[in-house]
């Protein structure tokens, strides 16, 4: 079949492990191929389900403490000084290890959230109905969200600009409701996500995505208690331009 060569690399594409030029070709193909878009959507949903399942079971603090106690070495009293020094060294290692583990866990958590934002972007573009309210008029799209999400936000004026508003839809990030806007610039689609900052994980605060770990360009910031994400396969300059328009509108 014609699409077999595309589907063979679909997982690699969704993981952002294909070259930038090939990524753009994939984006264009997925948007125009019902079979591949449906396959991409199902795989994204499966990946997100696996991520959610992976968070479901974590060791309790009591279990960790019991295991640490069982693994603690027993020393004879005759080696009291040696035991004291060893305990002090172990305490230092434990503190350093805990701090390192916490840092890595937070960084991994941030990367996972950014990855979920990328998944939402791809999932929406692969959908047969990417937006629930279809309009290029911000005065039509903005009121549509009233009563559907627990906050209000402003949309920038795009008259005579290079960006075109396509519409919007409701979305969820880690069970937090938010707004998803889709814009077009030179045949590239850009997603803008807006969520309440207080409802998102604390690990996202004062953080920014690492460009080499994402298959898309992204900017994120907070203003007025809201967290904004701008993501797409458009150039970094276009992402920055749209982000600045939103910052000005806020």
User: How many helices?
Assistant: 8
Largest sheet: 6 strands, antiparallel
Q: Quick one: overall form?
A: globular
Query: Span between N and C termini?
Result: 49 Å
Strand order of the largest sheet: 1-2-3-4-6-5
- Helix-strand string: HHHHHHEHEEEEEH
> Which class do the helix and strand fractions yield?
alpha+beta
Output mean pLDDT: 76
What proportion of the residues form beta strands (DSSP E)? 15-25%
Describe this structure as you would to a colleague:
This protein is of the alpha+beta class. It is 50% helix and 18% strand. The protein contains eight helices and six strands, in the order H-H-H-H-H-H-E-H-E-E-E-E-E-H. The chain has helices spanning 4-7, 10-14, 20-32, 34-56, 61-71, 80-126, 138-144, 236-249; strands at 133-134, 164-173, 176-185, 188-196, 217-223, 226-232. Strands 1-2-3-4-6-5 form a six-stranded antiparallel sheet, sandwiched between helices. Strand 3 (176-185) and strand 4 form a beta hairpin. The chain is globular. Mean pLDDT is 76; it is low at 75-79 and 88-107.
């Amino acid at each position: 079949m014609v699409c077999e060569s595309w589907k063979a690399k679909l997982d690699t594409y969704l993981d952002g492990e294909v070259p930038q030029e090939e990524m753009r070709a994939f984006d264009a193909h997925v948007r125009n191929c019902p079979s591949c878009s449906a396959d991409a959507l199902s795989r994204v949903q499966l990946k997100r389900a696996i991520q959610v399942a992976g968070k479901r079971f974590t060791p309790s603090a009591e279990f960790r403490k019991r295991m640490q106690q069982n693994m603690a070495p027993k020393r004879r009293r005759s080696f009291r000084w040696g035991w004291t020094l060893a305990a002090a060294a172990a305490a230092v290692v434990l503190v350093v290890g805990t701090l390192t583990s916490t840092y890595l866990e937070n960084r991994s958590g941030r990367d996972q959230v950014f990855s979920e934002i990328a998944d939402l972007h791809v999932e929406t573009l692969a959908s047969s109905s990417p937006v629930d309210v279809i309009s290029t008029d911000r005065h039509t799209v903005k009121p549509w969200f009233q009563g559907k999400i627990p906050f209000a936000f402003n949309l920038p004026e795009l008259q005579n600009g290079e960006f075109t508003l396509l519409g919007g839809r409701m979305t969820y990030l880690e069970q937090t409701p938010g707004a998803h806007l889709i814009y077009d610039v030179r045949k590239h689609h850009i997603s803008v996500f807006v969520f309440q900052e207080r409802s998102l994980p604390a690990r996202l605060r004062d953080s920014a995505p690492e460009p080499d770990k994402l298959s898309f360009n992204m900017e994120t910031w907070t203003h007025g208690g809201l967290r904004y994400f701008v993501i797409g396969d458009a150039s970094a300059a276009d992402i920055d331009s749209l982000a600045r328009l939103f910052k000005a509108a806020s």
